[in-house]
């Protein structure tokens, strides 16, 4: 959805939506009593830019064949996507109050068969980019010009299928595929490069035939501009990988300092304090 806003207004909108994603994540995890705060917080600005400005979407028609697609490998961050989809009108926000309850469509990972606006049912890490490539090939075969955005966690880069998919995208010259690596430096078991080193990330993607752009993943305008440039570049057959340098748990100081918040629970009072800190830090995102 192209934005007619001025640069200042666009920045203000995207920052406010990133804050909304973080605070709604805290609220929904309070319902479930456990969840992935920090994995959402590292990606909040990316999700805000994609859904509120960059992607071509039709909320009233989630099956529009010409819509842009979004697939997410780090599916445990879906709790931050659900409020966005509700905010855009895909379903009533009140439906989110069932989050993680028995029978609810809204689980820890997204379900494309039950949730309007979800394009890919992620769960097992490593498959998102492959699915995105299939979508891009389908678009080419049917003469449609949509873009496929695929968000990948940096720990996910340890999966061999990611690199098979990267090789495939370059081979098939799929310049309608944009990979976004959330390079927050951590995975469930600790620091990514201590568990299984993935550097040099940029050089590896280039070696696989991709154009690579590195941005500050919490600078909403930088993220927005990189995504727009990748989406609108000349059709040269070269897919683009955006490496977003992020901080896991961004917005809540003690989560930024403690990787154990990959999965956790805030008591109601601690949740209120986290929301207060998120709101205080909005201008520094």
The shape is: globular
Please report the number of helical segments: 11
Distance between the termini: 23 Å
Largest sheet strand order: 1-2-3-7-6
Kindly state the percentage of residues in helix.
40-55%
Give me the strand/helix succession.
Answer: HHHEHHEHEEEHHEHEHH
Could you tell me the mean pLDDT? 94
Uncertain runs: none
The count of β-strands is: 7
**Main beta sheet: strand number and arrangement?**
5 strands, parallel
Could you tell me the strand content as a percent range?
5-15%
Give the helix/strand class: alpha/beta
Q: Which radius of gyration do the C-alpha atoms yield?
A: 18 Å
Can you give a write-up of this model?
This protein has helices spanning 7-32, 37-41, 44-54, 82-87, 128-141, 160-171, 192-195, 201-207, 220-232, 253-257, 268-280, and strands at residues 69-72, 148-153, 177-183, 186-187, 190-191, 211-216, 240-245. The strands form two sheets. The chain has a five-stranded parallel β-sheet with strand order 1-2-3-7-6, with helices on both faces. The protein is an alpha/beta fold and 285 residues long. The two termini are 23 Å apart.
